[in-house]
Amino acid sequence: MKNKPELKHLIEDIAIMPTIAHIAVDLLRAEIPFLRVIKSWDEKIAKPNKEIIEGKQSYDGVELTLWGFFDRHWNANWKRVKAIKKNKIPMYTFHGCFETCPRSLKGYYLNLSLDNRYTTKALKSHIDIAAGLACGDNPIVVFHPGTANRHISKERALDNIMYNLSSALSYAERRGVILTLENMPYALRAKRQCTMLDHYDFQYVFRRLQHNNLKITFDWGHLNTQIRNRQFMKKHGFTADDALRFEHINEFIDKMKDNIVHCHTHYNRSHFLKIPADSSEHKRDYKKILLYLFYWTDLVKFFREGYKNTPDEHLPYTRITSDHLLFYKKTIENLINNTAIRQYGYITHELPPKKILKYFTFHRQGVMDNDEFIESLRIFKSLYQNNLD
User: Fold this and answer.
1) What is the three-class DSSP state of 24?
2) Which of 11, 35, 125, 296 has the fewest CB atoms found within 10 Å of its own CB?
3) How many other C-beta atoms can be found within 10 angstroms of the C-beta atom of residue 349?
């Protein structure tokens, strides 16, 4: 990859596409058989909001999460792919299924830290869909490294990750798809942390498994939550003042810069908040959704398990106060100028909306409206274009 393409700024799909509607449709069809005959139902209730990806000052496209694109045996749902294509939304990067879904959701739950006979097939099906939907060269599929259970050591979990990925990397190369591992957030009050948290974990994997189609998606907000992790702080020797200067962010970037080809960016206040975001607020918000989505289904478990333990607020850049903006700017400059992100060309902004489907509160501190989405993008671009107002 010799030429450096112009950076494309992508927005996560939940900002314009009510992905939860797709999940609800699949689950409701499983619970209520007669709904299966309504073939276009999911297309009608999942009509995208294209306003923030159309226009000169808008985002360039979307990172699509591949929920609902597989059956319980990880066969690709090509009817869903065809339906998504009808929306004519530019998609360049993709997020794989992950481990925060309950295991009972076959075709949604994917945990690379565990040994499972369907994992190779799952990875290859993700690759096929990404290759089929991508609008640009070298589409990226982001995977969580997963979480090991109490019977598996961290070393065994890391070995499982390498084994699972190695089984699909040659196939990814043939299809022209890049697989990336994402650094994970600190889980509050959790018995087991995610497998890969800091640069030491990534060095362990990338020194042993080297392949041109295996890279890193760096998540700024995820790493910032590790400030709440006492073991992380002690291991790296960081102080509270270091946290305010985002030394932990720059350390990861400096150590893994050659392998970082993509990033998830947003903002949270873990570096100075003594009390992380109250998870009970999420529960109150989600009650409104669950009452409308047949609370007896596994969707309840998905929301409960996926959001109860993270201090990552996913705030838009409009919420960054002036006393933290300069140090945040320095991390973004480091991330864009000293890694391979410019070479691969994609930045994904994980900015959830406050409401989904226009009626339900999804994220209490989320983006208020389309104007705030666009203003956040303007602020972010100014950070690395040396045009900070």
Assistant:
1) helix
2) 296
3) 23
The DSSP line for 116-172 is -TTHHHHHHHHHHHHHHH-SSSS-EEEE------TTS-HHHHHHHHHHHHHHHHHHH
| Residue 388 clears pLDDT 50, i.e. is over it | no
Cα angle vertex 332, ends 346, 11, to 5°?
40
Euclidean distance between CA atoms 314 and 276, whole angstroms: 12
Residue-wise pLDDT for 292-316, tens only, equals 444 344 444 444 444 445 678 899 9
pLDDT in tens, 185-219: 998 776 777 899 999 999 999 999 999 999 999 99
Tokens at 192, concatenated: 């087991």
Q: What's the pTM value of the predicted model, to 2 decimals?
A: 0.88
Do strands 355-356 and 8-12 pair parallel, antiparallel, or not at all (unpaired)?
unpaired
Closest Cα to residue 213, out of 151, 138, 281? 138
pLDDT at 49: 80
Q: Cβ contacts of residue 123 below 8 Å, gap of 6+?
A: 96, 143, 164, 165, 167, 168, 171, 172, 179
Name, in order, each residue with C-beta under 8 angstroms of 51's C-beta and a sequence gap of 6 or more. Answer: 58, 370
Report the C-alpha gap between 114 and 51 in whole angstroms.
40
* CB-based contact 344:263 (threshold 8 Å): no
pLDDT digits (tens, 9 = 90+) for 311-340: 788 999 999 999 999 999 999 999 999 999
| Bridge-based pairing state of the strands 360-361 and 355-356 | antiparallel
Amino acid identity at 305: E
Q: How confident is the model at residue 82 (pLDDT cuts 50, 70, 90)?
A: confident
CB atoms within 10 A of CB 240: 10
Contacts of residue 360, Cβ cutoff 8 Å, sequence gap at least 6: 285, 288, 289, 292
Nearest to 128 by CA among 92, 81, 62: 81
Helix ranges (H only) for 134-275 are 154-175, 199-208, 220-225, 230-236, 240-244, 247-256
For the chain, the 3-state helix, strand and coil shares in percent, each to the nearest 5, are 45, 15, 40
pLDDT for residue 302: 45
Q: How far is CA 113 from CA 40, 118, 168, 246, in A?
A: 36, 13, 15, 29
CATH of domain 8-384: 3.20.20.150
Residue 261 host element (H or E): strand 260-265
